[in-house]
C-alpha cells in the first residue's frame, strides 16, 4: 500500500477537482437517500387514507377524499422523480470531477514514466524486455488509474451512503436495522473473494493472450522462414494448442462470473426477507409503521451497491498497489550515465582513448582490454578485426552508451564524462550495425536527427549516401512509407538511408559501424569518396570487415580479442607482415575463389 503514496502528489496537484468531487458525492447521496423517506410517508398515507375512505362509505364526501388522496400520491411521485433528477445531476458532476482527475493523473504518470525511460541507459534496456517496459507504461498505469478514479470515487460513495443510511435506519428501529444489515458483511466478503478469483483468472487470460499474440506476431514476421522450411503444419498445430489453452482459461473465468450474480441476488433477497419478517413483527408490536418496512427495503437495496463496490474497490486498490510497485521499481532506477551540465559545446573531433578497458555490466564479458589510440580532427580511423573482437564496443563507448570500466576517453582534451551528453551526441553521426528505420516516410527517416530540414538537404544527404537514385524510382519518391505500413527496402537500401540520416546532421564525428556490408564494392567506393570530401575537416571512424573498405584510412586499428593487435596505415601494416597482412591475403583469396 505504501507504494500508492507516490500518487499523493497528483492528488495535491488536482485538489481542486478532488475536493469538489467529494462534495458532489455527499450531495448526490443525500438526494439518493431522501426518496426512502418519501416512500415511507406515502406508504403510511395510503394505509391511513384507505381506512378513512372506507369510513366514508356511502357518503358523497368519499369522492373528495379519493381525489385528495390521488393528488397527494401524485405529489409524492413527483418528489421522488425530482430527487432522482437532482441525484443524477450531482452524479454527473461527481464523475466530471473525479473521473476527469483520474484521466489527468493517468496522462501525467504515463508521461513521467516515458520521460524517465528515455533517461535510462542502455544496460537498463538490455536487462528488461520491451514487453515489460510497455506493460508498465500502459497496462499498469491503467490499473493505477482505476485506483485514483473509480476506486476513490466508489470508496467515498460507500462511506457516505453507509453513514447516511445506517443513521436513518437506527433512528427508525435499532433491532430492524441490525437484522437487515446482517447478511451485508457476508455479501462484502463473498464479492471480495469472487473478485479476487475473477482477477486472477482474468490475468491468466491476459497472459495467455499475450503469449498467443506474441506467437502470431513472430510467426507472421518469420513467415518466409516457415514457408521455406515447410513447417506450416507444425506451426498451425502449435497455434491450435495455444488457442486451446486460451479457451480453457476463458471458460474458467465464465464459470466464476456465472456464479457471481445469482449468489449476489440470493444475499440481497435474504436481506429483504429478513427485513419484511422482523419488520412485520415490529409492526404488530406497534413499534414501527408498515411505511417503515417499505422505507427499510429501499435502504437495504440502496446499501447493496456500496457493499458490492466495497469488495470491488478493495481488489482494485490491491491491484493498483501491485502495479504502482512495478512502476516505482523503474521510476526509482537512476540512470547510470549522468550528463554533465556544461555551457555550449563545439566538438572539434579530437578523440583519445587512454588504456581503456571495458566489461559489459550485464554479461561480465570483457570486451576491451587496455585500448589506447588517438584520432585528430580531419583524420579517418578504421577499425577492423574478427567478429566479437570489440569493434562495436569502441563505438558504444565513444557515444557514451556505457562508461568505461577503467582508463579514460578524452574528446577535444576533455574527459568524456565532463561533456553535456545531449550536445555531444547531437554532433555525432552514428550509423549502427543493425539498421533501424521508423515506420515513416523515407524523408522523415533521413531528417530524423534534425529539428528542421528542407527538401534539398534531405536530397543532398541521400545523394551523398548514394541512395538518391533508388529513392526517386519509388512511386512516391521521398514520401514513400517504409517499414510495417510501407514498402520493404533491400538491406543495402536501408543501410544507405541510415547513412544519409547520419550525414544530414553534418556531424563533427562520423561513426559507421559495419554499415556497408550489404552494399556492393562500387557503391561503397562512391560513398567513401564523397565522405572523403565532406569529412575533410572532421573525424571519421569506420568499422569494417573488408580490408578494401579501409585501405585509404589514415590509421587502422586491428583488434583481436578486445586488444589492439596492430595499428598504423595500410602500408605500415602490410610492411609489418602480421595479423593485418594475414587478413588481407585471406580476403583476397576469398574474392578470387569464385573466379578461379
Ligand atoms: N550489449 C552487450 N552486452 C553484453 N555483452 C556484449 C554486448 N555487446 C557485445 N557484447 C559482447 O562483447 C564482445 C565484443 O562485442 P562487439 O559487438 O564489440 O564485437 P564486434 O567486434 O563489433 O563484432 P561484430 O564484428 O560481429 O559486430 C562480444 O563477446 C559480445 O558478445
From TrEMBL:
Membrane topology recorded in Swiss-Prot or TrEMBL: Multi-pass membrane protein
One GO cellular component term noted in the UniProt record for this chain: plasma membrane
Ranges where the ABC transporter domain occurs: 351-586
Domain of life: Bacteria
InterPro entries: AAA+_ATPase, ABC1_TM_dom, ABC1_TM_sf, ABC_transporter-like_ATP-bd, ABC_transporter-like_CS, P-loop_NTPase, Type_1_exporter
Pfam families according to UniProt: ABC_membrane, ABC_tran
Keyword Ribonucleoprotein: no
TM regions (residue ranges): 21-43, 68-93, 151-170, 176-194, 258-278, 298-317
Alphabetically ordered keywords of this record: ATP-binding, Cell membrane, Membrane, Nucleotide-binding, Transmembrane, Transmembrane helix, Transport
MF (Gene Ontology): ABC-type oligopeptide transporter activity; ATP binding; ATP hydrolysis activity
UniProt keyword Magnesium present: no
Entry's localization field: Cell membrane
Residues covered by the ABC transmembrane type-1 domain: 21-319
Family annotation (SMART domains): AAA
Protein name: ABC transporter ATP-binding protein
